[in-house]
Design brief:
The chain is an alpha+beta fold and 300 residues long. It has one domain: Nitrilase/N-carbamoyl-D-aminoacid amidohydrolase (4-Layer Sandwich). 23% of the residues lie in helices and 28% in strands. A hairpin with a 2-residue loop joins strand 9 and strand 10.
Length: 300
């Protein structure tokens, strides 16, 4: 990020989605246009924002939701044209069909002229009740590489990646200036209210820790609302919203509600990151000579 661009206006769209893909895209378009009109330079959408969160069940029919990321893809053109129309850098999240039998959970970043600045394929893939992502997604093979844009170097990760400090650190070591997490996470109704709150706070706390440990802002954008389980084996997922932006010391700049849609433009003082890293030089004091065991699955 240039010295002239010391603040960044980030817009996020905490939306609720349905099975109507065209309707979801229209909602996203409206959100993007409204946020751009409020001055957003960078806009972030939730994970897999064109459909319901289909990973609640394992169904081969759901692979029909995947899209090619070729230049002539209608979905790519749709978001490319929105980014160009609004003059914003746009972080999207799509179900990528790379080839027959090969699919990824992929974030595409569009530059403000509509070109593709880069992409990130989700590296950590969960396999939990109601989150059967391993059935659908091949783990990413691009690695933890920040995406250079006109508003800075974006360390884009996706949802389950947010629990792994290694992912955030590697993005920071590659020069990311901000960490971004499109997300789809929520509660199962059988959990007690106390357990639900522990889960949400753990999710928030671990990401605030990534901000502190790396001296970088974190932007996390979640969907919101209830989505039923097509198999009726559970009561579905109540996505908890709570999208948030924190600064380089983990301080809240904004935290959204947990039960409704929300669209905000939040200004981040990027110049503070340089100062925080001077005060707390964690990268300087890393013992890189002693970290080899971290490459093991477990040290027996």
């Amino acid at each position: 990020m240039s010295q002239q661009n010391k603040t960044l206006k980030v817009g996020f769209a905490q939306n609720s989605y349905t099975s109507d893909i065209a309707g979801n895209q229209a909602l996203n378009a409206q959100s993007i246009r409204n946020l751009a009109a409020q001055g957003a330079q960078l806009i972030v959408l939730p994970e897999l924002h064109d459909s319901l969160y289909f990973c609640q069940v394992e169904s081969v029919d759901n692979f029909d939701l995947a899209v090619s990321l070729a230049d002539d893809s209608a979905t790519v053109r749709f978001y490319s044209e929105l980014a160009r129309e609004c003059g914003v850098v746009l972080v999207s999240s799509l179900f990528e069909r790379r080839s027959a039998g090969l699919y990824h959970n992929t974030s595409i970043v569009f530059e403000k002229d509509g070109s593709i600045a880069g992409r990130y394929r989700k590296m950590h893939i969960p396999d939990d009740p109601a989150y059967y992502e391993k059935f659908y997604f091949t783990p990413g093979d691009i690695g933890f590489e920040p995406i250079q844009t006109s508003v800075g170097r974006l360390g884009v990760l996706v949802c389950w990646d947010q629990w792994y400090p290694e992912a955030a650190r590697l993005m920071a070591l590659r020069g990311a200036e901000i960490l971004i997490y499109p997300t789809a996470i929520g509660w199962e109704s059988s959990d007690t209210p106390e357990e639900q709150e522990r889960q949400r706070e753990a999710w928030t706390t671990v990401q605030r820790g990534h901000a502190v440990a790396n001296g970088l802002p974190v932007v996390t954008v979640n969907r919101v609302g209830h989505e039923p389980d097509p198999s009726a084996q559970t009561n579905g997922i109540q996505f908890w919203g709570s999208s948030f932006i924190v600064g380089p010391q983990g301080e809240f700049i904004h935290r959204a509600c947990n039960n409704d849609t929300e669209h905000r433009v939040i200004e981040i003082n990027m110049a503070r990151c340089e100062q925080v890293r001077r005060w707390w030089p964690f990268l300087r004091d890393r013992r890189i000579d002693a970290y080899q065991p971290i490459l093991n699955r477990f040290n027996d």
